[in-house]
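Page 37, continued from 36.
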């Protein structure tokens, strides 16, 4: 008798922006203590997980050429982690993962983390595991500090190394413009640069996150705009000085305020409305300060199944690793 092959599962997963990112001391494990407010944005990746004879990663879309297609890919690491968690290690090699990327690679928007979270959700559905988000979130945290947030989405306060989450009430859809840079920035290098800047002097630190929580509950983008803050911004700008111009150009184009997203180099601008965001994105794209721009809104939900075999077809040639 032929074995029944389950149909592929497709999961959509959001990017994130840090509305507030306070970086504390380095811990004994090398991670920095964080207080951050994440918001999930409608700029997404789509991940299809399917049964396969051998492990395969295919990557299409934004930045596909710089994404590893071997076992180092965060999606494949997620397959191995979940397989080990449920005692199905021998099946970890029998999964094909197709990534359709919209999130810039090494852009400070947690694209790799998003793919890992989506893979956990997709593989749970493919293997029909009875496993809740909370349990998945423990597996997620072993893969990276930002991975649990991509499972939940919405708006959340993150503490610890960013993996301990509490939801934050956000009453409004906020409208964002994202300016992608020519190249990515390495997250560990940006944290290292902040340590260097702090050893040499005393770069300004963001204040308490409490006013940001209030602004989110009021739903007023003007109030939020005054409060965006990121301790990693000075380090990202130190490594990539051109970001100063990008941040200025977004505000000159009509955004309410801009911030470097996480470790950068993507700059995120909050705007008054969806219409204003479209205008800012067009003007910024023509200003010669970034590679390209996108509009997005947030908050949006975390990783969720959107389809099976009828998922959208890729539009760019794949990088395939067997
Ligand atoms: C900076 C942030 C802000 O949300 O996002 P990105 O800009 O990368 O998207 C995160 O802290 C990135 O989280 P993530 O990308 O999951 O990092 P991980 O894989 O856990 O860690 C990569 C490296 O970043 C540094 N790291 C990360 C988190 C943290 N709290 N302290 C750290 O010092 C460490 O050097 C670590 O080895
Ligand atoms: N599925 C993936 N998508 C993107 N990058 C990945 C993936 N798997 C591994 N990586 C590696 O992780 C690094 C960080 O990627 P990413 O998560 O996009 O950036 P950031 O940490 O700035 O948000 C990349 O430079 C890439 O080498």
């Amino acid at each position: 008798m032929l074995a029944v092959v389950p149909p592929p599962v497709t999961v959509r997963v959001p990017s994130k922006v840090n509305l507030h990112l306070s970086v504390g001391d380095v811990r004994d494990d090398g991670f920095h203590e964080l207080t951050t407010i994440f918001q999930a944005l409608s700029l997404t990746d789509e991940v299809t997980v399917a049964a396969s004879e051998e492990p395969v990663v295919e990557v299409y879309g934004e930045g596909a050429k710089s994404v590893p297609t071997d076992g180092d890919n965060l999606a494949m690491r997620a397959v191995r982690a979940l397989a080990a968690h449920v005692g199905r290690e021998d099946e970890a090699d029998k999964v094909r993962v197709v990534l359709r990327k919209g999130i810039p690679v090494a852009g400070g928007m947690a694209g790799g983390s998003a793919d890992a979270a989506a893979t956990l959700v997709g593989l749970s559905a493919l293997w029909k595991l009875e496993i809740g988000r909370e349990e998945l979130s423990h597996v997620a945290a072993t893969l990276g500090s930002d991975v649990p947030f991509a499972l939940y989405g919405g708006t959340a306060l993150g503490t610890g190394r960013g993996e301990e989450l509490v939801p934050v009430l956000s009453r409004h859809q906020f409208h964002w413009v994202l300016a992608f840079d020519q190249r990515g920035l390495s997250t560990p290098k940006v944290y290292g640069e902040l340590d260097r800047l702090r050893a040499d002097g005393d770069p300004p630190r963001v204040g308490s996150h409490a006013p940001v929580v209030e602004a989110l509950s009021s739903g007023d983008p003007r109030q939020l705009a005054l409060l965006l803050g990121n301790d990693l911004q000075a380090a990202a700008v130190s490594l990539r000085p051109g970001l100063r111009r990008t941040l200025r150009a977004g505000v000159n184009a009509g955004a309410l305020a801009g911030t470097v997203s996480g470790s950068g180099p993507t700059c995120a601008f909050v705007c008054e409305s969806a219409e204003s965001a479209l205008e800012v994105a067009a003007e910024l794209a023509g200003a010669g300060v970034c590679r390209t721009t996108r509009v997005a809104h947030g908050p949006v939900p975390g990783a969720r199944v959107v389809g099976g075999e009828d998922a959208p077809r890729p539009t760019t040639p794949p990088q395939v690793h067997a």
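Confidence is low (pLDDT under 50) at residues 309-322. Flag for discussion at group meeting. DSSP finds ten helices and 13 strands in the chain.
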